[in-house]
């Protein structure tokens, strides 16, 4: 697995041999092509970060800060190795749904989430991000999910874009702008 574009294009990433489903290159390219220049200078939070491919891709494309949140101690070792030496990267070991409380009102420009498939975490994560006001006024919430776990928008939110990549879907959401 490698970073697709930007300053760290071609950088190799380490992953455990099993137990993790890294976001595919084509999916990451689609996400960041959709976000365009909104990534430059952005404050980003990468939830269920895994090995960090999506968050590192954000740093590579100009994000100024990425907070990586991952619970698994085994996966965390790979994540720390992958972000070593990257300015603006901060790794936190925590349960995502609990940790989001600490981010209430954080005003991130971009929140990325790739929860384990088929664990009912897609809707819970979206609702918690919305309820705790983790995104700034013009922020985007990007969530990768299984085709059978399409998110339902909380009140005041809308899906800006959705795309299918095999069994995976990516939904980009934001609060309504009035």
Please explain how this structure is put together.
With about 180 residues, the protein is of the alpha/beta class. It has one domain: Vaccinia Virus protein VP39 (Rossmann fold). Helices cover about 25% and strands about 30% of the residues. The protein contains five helices and seven strands, in the order αβαβαβαβαβββ. The protein has helices at about 25-35, 55-60, 75-85, 95-100, 120-130, and strands at about 45, 65-70, 90-95, 110-115, 135-145, 155-165, 170-175. It has a seven-stranded mixed sheet, sandwiched between helices. The longest helix has 11 residues, at about 25-35. The termini are far apart.
Order of helices and strands: HEHEHEHEHEEE
| Domains (count) | 1
CATH architecture: 3-Layer(aba) Sandwich
Strand content: 25-35%
Q: What is the terminal-to-terminal distance?
A: 41 Å
Low-confidence stretches: none
Annotation, overall tally of beta strands: 7
Helix content: 25-40%
Radius of gyration, rounded?
A: 15 Å
Question: What is the level 1 CATH name?
Answer: Alpha Beta
- The outline comes out as globular
CATH homolog superfamily: Vaccinia Virus protein VP39
Can you tell me the CATH topology?
A: Rossmann fold
Main sheet overview: 7 strands, mixed
How much is the average pLDDT? 93
Strand order of the largest sheet: 3-2-1-4-5-7-6
> SS-based structural class?
alpha/beta
- List the total number of helices: 5
């Amino acid at each position: 697995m490698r970073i697709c574009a930007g300053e760290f294009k071609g950088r190799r990433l380490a992953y455990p041999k099993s137990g993790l489903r890294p976001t595919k290159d084509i999916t990451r390219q689609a996400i960041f092509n959709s976000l365009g220049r909104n990534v430059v200078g952005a404050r980003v939070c990468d939830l269920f970060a895994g090995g960090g491919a999506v968050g590192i891709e954000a740093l590579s494309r100009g994000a100024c800060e990425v907070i990586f949140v991952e619970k698994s101690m085994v996966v965390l070792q790979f994540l720390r190795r992958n972000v070593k030496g990257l300015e603006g990267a901060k790794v936190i070991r925590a349960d995502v749904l609990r940790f989001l409380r600490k981010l209430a009102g954080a005003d991130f420009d971009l929140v990325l989430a790739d929860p384990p498939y088929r664990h009912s975490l897609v809707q819970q994560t979206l609702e918690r991000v919305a309820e705790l006001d983790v995104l700034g006024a013009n922020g985007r919430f990007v969530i990768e999910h299984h085709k059978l776990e399409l998110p339902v928008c909380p009140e005041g939110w809308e899906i800006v874009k959705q795309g299918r990549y095999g069994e995976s879907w990516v939904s980009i959401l934001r609060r309504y702008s009035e």
